[in-house]
Amino acid sequence: MMILVDGAGGEWPVIGHAPWNGCNLADFVMPFFLFIVGMAIPLSLKRIPNRLLAVRRVVVRTLKLLFWGIILQGGYSHAPDKLSYGVDMKHIRWCGILQRIALAYLVVALLEILTKDAKVGDQPSTPCSIFKLCCWQWYGSSHCARARNVSQRCSEAHILHSNLILAACILVTYLLVIYETYVPDWEFTVHNTDSQDYGKVFTVACGTRGKLDPPCNAVGYIDRQVLGINHMYQHPAWKRSKACTNNSPHEGPFRKNAPAWCQAPFDPEGILSFILCSSMSSILTTIIGVHYGHVLVHMKSHLNRLKLWVPMGLALLIFGIILHFSHAIPLNKQLYSFSYVCVTAGAAAIVFSIFYFLFHVSYASSLMYMKVCCASCVMATHSLFRVDILGLRTLFLPLEWIGMNAMLVFVMAAEGIFEGFLNGWYYESPNNTLVYWIQKHIFIKVWHSQRVGILLYVIFAQILFWALVAGVLHHLGIYWKL
C-alpha cells in the first residue's frame, strides 16, 4: 500500500493523504502498520522466556528502525528523483514514519515485557475467559490474590490494566496540551528555491488556543519551539488545501491570495506527534493490536476470536465517525486526532477480521518476518497466516512474499532506492532513464492517460515486480530482518 500511495498518490488524490481534515487511503497506512506491530508483540515475545534478552532485542530493533528512518526520511536520501545524497545538518528532519513506529514498538513492547509473566499459559477457548480479564482490570489486582487457581489469567489482567492506564494517561495529556496550549504569532523564512518568495520572511497571526486549523494548532507550535522550523517537514499535505491552491486536492501553484502559512513547513511526525500524539495514537493503536494478539494467543476457537474482534472494531469505527461528523473532534492525520485513532484502528481491526474469516486461517509462525514496516494490513495478514482452504493461498502468495521481506520492499520500492539506482544510468539527459521510458512508452502512451498509466505502472512495474523478487528471495531463504 505504501508503494501505491507514494507512486500514484500524486495523480489520484483519493489515494494520497488528505490535505487537512478527512481521511483518504494513505491515511490508513500508518495505523495499519501499528496495529499489526501490536499483534506481533505478544506472539514474538512469548517465545523469549528471559526478560533481559527480550528487552535487548526490543532495544536493538528500535535503534535499527531509528537509523533507517533518519537515513531514508531525514533528507540524506533524495531518491528517486535526484541523483545525489547528503543533507545539511541545519535542515535534517529528525522525525519520520519509521521513527514513530520505533517509539510505539519500544514503549508497548517494554510494557508487555515488564507486565507479562513469562510462564503464562494458554487460556480456555471461551469468550468468558477474555471478558473476565477485561472486567478484572477495572477492579484492580486485589482479586488476583484471592484466586490462586486463576493466577495465569491475572497476569493477563495486569497487562490489560497497565495498557489501559497508559493509554488513558496519554489521552488526557494529549487533549490538555492540544486544547490548552497558547499559540502566539510566529514567523518563518521561505527556503524553497523554486518559490518566487524565496528568502522572504512571513508572519502568521495566531494569539489563540484550542484551534485545530493548519496555522495555529499546538502541534506545529511545539514542533517549532523544540525542533526548530528548519528541521520540520518542508512539503506538508496542507499545501494542497483549498485555501492554498485552486487545484485542490491536487498539487498546483498557490493562489494569489493564499495565506502565508501555505508555504510554511509542518511535521505530522514532529515532537508533539512523536512524543504525545504518537504516544496517544501510535501507542494506543499498537495497544489495540496487542489486545488482538492476546486474543489470538489465548483463544483457540476461530468463532470466539471473531466474536471479540469484530464488535470492538465496529465500536471504535462508529465512535470515531460520530466524533467527526458531530464536529466534536475532526478526523485529522496530521494532528493524529482522537477520532482519527478510533476510525483507523477500528478499520484495521475489521479488515483483519474479514480476512481472518474469509480464509478461515490456521495459525502460522511467519509473523516474525513482518513485525515492522509491513507493506499493508492485507499483506501482513497473509504473513501472519497461511490460507489452507478454498485454494486461495496461491492467489495471494505475492502478498505473502512481500510480507516476508517487507523491510526490503519498503526501502527499495516505497522509498525509491532501487528507482534512484536505475535513474543514475541515463542517456544524454537525467530525465531520459529506463524508468521514464517504461512509464511513458509501456503504460502512459498505451492507455493515453497520465493518471491511468502511472497507476498501472505502480501496480505492475513496482508492486508485482517486487512481489516476484520477494518470492525468489523466499525460495532462497533470504530475508531482511530487523
TrEMBL record:
Annotated TM spans: 28-46, 58-77, 97-115, 158-179, 271-296, 308-329, 335-359, 405-427, 454-480
Keyword terms, alphabetized: Membrane, Transmembrane, Transmembrane helix
Coiled-coil residues: none
PANTHER family, alphabetized: HEPARAN-ALPHA-GLUCOSAMINIDE N-ACETYLTRANSFERASE-LIKE PROTEIN (DUF1624), LD22376P
UniProt name for this protein: Heparan-alpha-glucosaminide N-acetyltransferase isoform X2
